[in-house]
Write a structure and sequence with these properties.
Elements: H1 8-28, H2 31-39, H3 50-57, E1 63-67, H4 73-81, E2 84-88, H5 105-112, H6 119-132, H7 139-156, H8 162-177, H9 184-197, E3 200-202, E4 207-209, H10 212-215, H11 218-223, E5 230-233, E6 251-255, H12 258-269, H13 273-276, H14 278-288, E7 292-296, E8 300-304, E9 306-311, E10 317-322, E11 327-330, E12 333-334, E13 347-350, H15 366-371, E14 378-383, E15 389-400, E16 403-416, E17 419-422, E18 429-432, E19 437-442, H16 447-450, H17 472-486, H18 495-504, H19 510-519, H20 526-538, H21 543-556
Parallel strand pairs: 1-2, 3-6, 5-6
Antiparallel strand pairs: 3-4, 7-8, 7-19, 8-11, 9-10, 10-13, 11-12, 14-15, 15-16, 16-17, 16-18
Helix pairs in contact: 1-21, 4-6, 6-12, 7-8, 17-19, 19-20
């Protein structure tokens, strides 16, 4: 966060939103919000410093870190699981004061941060991060995220090329209209939307606001309480209700209390592949067309994109076919020499128990292993329950905790029902040891190793500035008004600034509002005050601004 990049206009936007929000949320937000603002020391008159929020959150065993716009969902969840709130450092422009298409410091700091002072909510936020980072995300989810991120950044950037923005909007429309499998990540994104972002709490007839999307949106915080917006008791069924980020929501979910959030999350997590594993978990991984990790009962973890699976004579999964770039891990750490460079052409993973002992290889004792010839420099014939057979020469046995995890073989032939799954001429074969898949989760087991070639640190500063050639003069006027206010300058001294606003910046209403608040009640300039109020009221013709301006005038009154 480069604090010097915030303009005087930016600070005025923060100031105005906090000014009109506090009286409203004292009445309509959950009590934790108002008390939380004070408890974490949120400033009301200027953009907050994230370092100060970070220090103040220490008291609640949380922290804060600066980010830019939409960050990848998995990274966002990782932050929450570590009890760190990501705060986007950019701030919305005046054009988007009522609602921003991109995460900004108002949404993150004024929306999310205060509720963290409530322990039950903070526990849910952390648990949500822990569960969600294990969710299986589809390839389409990943593609859609990239488009939404780019579009939201461009919409908030005053220097954006309009033609380029139109292309991105068309891309989003096309991608959103595609039929797509609803992944775990997608279902959890819906739970996030209906709780963390747009959640209501308490009584169905008179609910209170706690969702950060509502707490940081001037327009939607007001609209959400309208009787036209259907209020539904929160349940696990919220994962089936999709949402549109570009439109007000026709329905919202009401939780009884913050503890209920954690209970619903726990109920959903029991259905997720990281808890269920098995064939259903593998099917989800295949449908995702994305990188996932399958965990064997031996502890071996295989990370990559599963193309398909093969069942044995008993209908049980006995072989997994992976696409290129596969990583083998143990305890979330890449096994030396088994990264994506080595397994660059894909991988075939055996699953099952040996016919001889009715056990998987990793559960055999030394005598049983020896009796089957499972030792270095030995030729073996391994027959699995269900019909799969392996013939080859053992070159190396990798063990963890005295149990075989990977057996490296040469001149290997893997067959089932007469079909070859691996042939000797294909090279070295690494036999995975395990009888069942106990867990399947999204992403690789060892992120840093899997993505080490693509995740290179960059030194650029990503924070944007809202200053443009068109508003640099206006920015100086905002600064001048604050200086006059500090020295209690008489009302007449603001009149030249007002004239400049009328003539040179006729589309700016916020500075007019700040001046109106300062000089209201000054009988010596009553005529000019009437003119100013009429000028401000003109902007209420814009439906997007009507409520925003009206609430400001009510607060001033």
């Amino acid at each position: 966060q480069d604090y010097s990049l915030y303009s005087h206009i930016d600070h005025a936007i923060w100031r105005y939103i906090m000014k009109i929000s506090l009286p409203f949320f004292m009445k309509y937000a959950h009590e934790s919000y108002i008390s939380g603002l004070e408890m974490i020391g949120m400033p009301l008159d200027q953009v907050p410093k994230v370092d100060e929020i970070d220090n103040n959150l220490d008291a609640y065993k949380w922290g804060a870190a600066t980010v830019k716009g939409f960050i990848p969902p998995t990274i966002f969840m990782e932050f929450l699981s570590r009890r760190v709130l990501p705060i986007a450092v950019d701030i919305r422009t005046l054009e988007h004061i009522a609602y921003t298409p991109a995460p900004d410091i108002i949404h993150e700091a004024a929306g999310h941060a205060p509720i963290i002072a409530n322990n039950d909510y903070a526990d849910y936020l952390c648990a949500y991060g822990e569960v969600s980072k294990k969710a299986i995300q589809s390839k389409q989810d990943s593609e859609l995220y990239k488009i939404i991120r780019k579009m939201s950044d461009m919409k908030e950037d005053p220097n954006t090329d309009k033609a380029e923005l139109k292309k991105i909007e068309i891309q989003l429309e096309e991608k959103s209209s595609e039929n797509r499998w609803t992944s775990e990540a997608n279902e959890l994104a819906r739970m996030n939307w209906w709780t963390i972002e747009y959640g209501l709490i308490g009584n169905l007839k008179n609910p209170k606001i706690y969702g950060a999307g509502l707490l940081s949106s001037v327009s939607e915080s007001l609209e959400c309480l309208d009787k036209k917006v259907k209020k539904i008791p929160l349940s696990i069924e919220c994962i089936r209700q999709d949402y549109n980020i570009t439109e007000p929501q026709p329905q919202l979910y009401v939780a009884d209390n913050f503890k209920d959030l954690k209970k619903i999350l726990d109920d959903y997590s029991k259905t997720m592949a990281f808890n269920t594993g098995g064939k259903e978990g593998i099917k989800k991984a295949i449908q995702s067309e994305n990188v996932t990790t399958a965990v064997y009962d031996s502890g071996l973890q295989i990370s990559g994109t599963i193309k398909n699976y093969i069942s044995d004579n008993n209908g049980e999964i006995t072989y997994l076919h992976y696409d290129k770039h596969v990583q083998l891990c143990y305890n979330d750490t890449e096994i030396p020499s088994h990264g994506i460079e080595y397994h660059s052409e894909g991988y075939g993973a055996v699953i099952g128990r040996l016919s001889d002992f009715g056990k998987p290889i990793h559960q055999l004792n030394k005598n049983q292993l020896s009796s089957l010839g499972i030792e270095n420099n030995s030729d073996v014939l391994l027959e699995f329950i269900g019909g799969l057979t392996i013939i080859g020469s053992i070159k190396k046995i990798l063990q963890y905790g005295e149990k075989p995890i990977i057996i490296t073989m040469e001149n290997t032939e893997v067959k089932i029902m007469g079909n070859h799954l691996f042939k000797p001429e294909w090279g070295t074969y690494d036999l995975a040891c395990g009888s069942e898949i106990i867990s399947v989760f999204g992403g690789p087991a060892d992120w840093n190793s899997y993505y080490k070639n693509s995740l290179k640190p960059k030194k650029e500063i990503y924070q944007s500035s809202n200053l443009t050639a068109e508003n640099i003069g206006l920015n100086k006027l905002y600064n001048e008004v604050q200086k006059l206010k500090k020295i209690n300058s008489p009302g007449e001294t603001y009149l030249p600034i007002l004239n400049e606003l009328y003539n040179n910046y006729p589309d700016d209403w916020l500075l007019c509002m700040e001046i109106y608040e300062i000089i209201i009640g000054n009988s010596a300039i009553e005529k000019e005050l009437d003119q100013l109020l009429n000028h401000i009221n003109r902007f209420k013709r814009d439906d997007k601004l009507k409520d925003t301006i009206q609430r400001g005038l009510q607060v001033i009154a």
